[in-house]
Amino acid sequence: MDKNSLCSKFKGKSFLKLLDFTTEDIQYLLDLSAQLKAEKKAGIAHRMHEGKNVALLFEKTSTRTRCAFEVAASDLGMNAVYLDPSGSQMGKKESIEDTAKVLGRMFDGIEYRGYGQELVETLAKYAGVPVWNGLTNEFHPTQILADLLTIKEHFGTLSDKKLVYMGDARYNMGNSLMVGCAKMGMKFTACAPKEYIPSQALIDECQKIAKQTGAVLQFEADPIKATKDADVIYTDVWVSMGEPSEVWEQRIKDLLPYRVTSDIMENAGPGCIFMHCLPSFHDLNTTIGKDIYDKFGLDCMEVTDEVFNSPQSVVFDEAENRMHTIKAVMAATL
After folding, report:
1. Whether 277 is catalytic
2. Under 8 Å between Cβ of 45 and 328
3. What is the number of other CB atoms lying within 10 angstroms of the CB of residue 237?
4. Is 105 a catalytic residue?
5. Which residue among the candidates 147, 236, 272, 300 is catalytic per the annotation?
6. Taking the chain (334 residues) in consecutive chunks of 10 residues, what is each chunk's mean pLDDT?
7. Would residue 113 show up in a list of annotated catalytic residues for this protein?
8. Which member of 143, 168, 191, 251 is catalytic?
9. Widest CA span of the chain, in angstroms?
10. Which residues contact 327 (CB under 8 A, 6 or more apart)?
11. Catalytic hit among 170, 251, 282, 322
């Protein structure tokens, strides 16, 4: 399938999870992201959706996701309207179905960032316009596109690259990285206690995909075994948005052995890069970081400051690529 026919295939389609797309689809979006990034760096305008309007519906706030969607929309010639939890009645005074129908009459596309995957799926069912998943409890597909683009930029390829996700792999990032690696023929390892890995149903689904793409999926509790010869070591915060603060003590007890340290990076090898979807608790320069230090005496959590700010860290390349990949998703689907 050529790029023109692929672009036609995307038009009007929602972007809810990577499981909905083929390897070829994902590769097209990565190629389009790279093209739009190169054009932006060269000062070449690509206002291909001049005059269109998009709604950004945020039940969970975010620096990178909001800025990425707003800048990408502007670059494409569109107007973006941001709705935070106080700016929408969705789920409170108005059903999700009714909200979808109203916004679909006013906007050309809708981004949703919030809670259960069923919410964004319902929006897409009734909106009549493309809906884009900016994060749910289960999946974070726009982040994974940015991660894949960053890995490809660094290594020149995705095939056979080994990505190790350390920490709590049960939710959106662990789930989505496993799906992305399976789709793109990579080697994925969830390095976590057995109770912190993705659901068996999702593992089974990804194993079926892996048989077709040549991907390898592994689950290893020993950090030294898991990270040996890794190309990418990836981690995320130990407590997700919306979870109660009471879970910190148990998470720290369970996940402290999975902190990314210089010893872990050295075990992986000199060519390994460090990735994190941000924000990160790598120092005491945040309110939560100071609070954790006061309660538990930790000056960092999921990654040390030494690793976070090392030459091997590509976290800010990754953060920038959120905008380029989100722009590609909106450009293709509109």
Report:
1. yes
2. no
3. 21
4. no
5. 236
6. 63 98 97 97 97 96 96 98 79 85 98 97 98 98 98 97 98 98 98 97 98 98 98 95 84 97 97 98 95 95 98 98 98 97
7. yes
8. 143
9. 57
10. 33, 36, 72, 75, 76
11. 322
